[in-house]
Structures are given as C-alpha cells and as structure tokens.
Amino acid sequence: MSTHQQIDELVKGNPVVLFMKGTAQFPQCGFSGRAVQILKACGVNQITTVNVLEDPAIRQGIKDYSNWPTIPQLYINGEFVGGSDIMMEMYQAGELQQLLAPKA
C-alpha cells in the first residue's frame, strides 16, 4: 500500500484524525499540544492521532496529501480542516464545536 493510500484510509476511516508530532498523551511540539487541547475543549474523546515523527514517509506524505506545509493537520469526516492556528480561530468563533458536535 502506498503512503497516499495509507493516509487516505486513515482520513476517511476515522471521524476525527490529527496528524501531529508526538501523541495526544505526549505532544512533541507546542502546536500539536495546542491542537489536542482544542479538540478536548470541544468535548472530543475519540481522536485518532498519527505521530508523524515515527514515519518520515507519512510526515512528508501528509503534506503532499493536503497540499499544506505544516503539521499538525486536522481532518474531520474525511475533510481537511487545517492546522492549529486555523483550529484556534474556528474554536474561538464557535465553528469547530459545530463541526465536531456529532463527534463529541
């Protein structure tokens, strides 16, 4: 299976997927930590996280998949949402909570 197929299955097979540095329990960068905190603040209990530091192919592949240069990257229902800055803006505007409401 190609890296693109692997990412596609993860994104489309899970309601909330966060590609991040580290894990939800132990984020390894501030942006990834903030992304996890935002999701928890929205009441999301089931987050599928992918630690991009464990696999260089995934780390580069997710950037190509989304055409987005930075990590973390959030996907909800197979759709790319954005990184931690976009997540924070959407959270503050109440938009992220609406997107996640059925998932919480």
TrEMBL record:
Binding positions for [2Fe-2S] cluster per the UniProt entry: 29
GO molecular function (one): metal ion binding
Pfam families for the chain: Glutaredoxin (PF00462)
Alphabetical UniProt keywords: 2Fe-2S, Iron, Iron-sulfur, Metal-binding, Redox-active center
InterPro entries: Glutaredoxin, GRX_PICOT-like, Monothiol_GRX, Monothiol_GRX-rel, Thioredoxin-like_sf
Top-rank taxon: Bacteria
The Glutaredoxin domain, residue ranges: 16-81
Family designation: Belongs to the glutaredoxin family. Monothiol subfamily.
Protein name (database record): Glutaredoxin
Organism: Sphaerotilus sulfidivorans
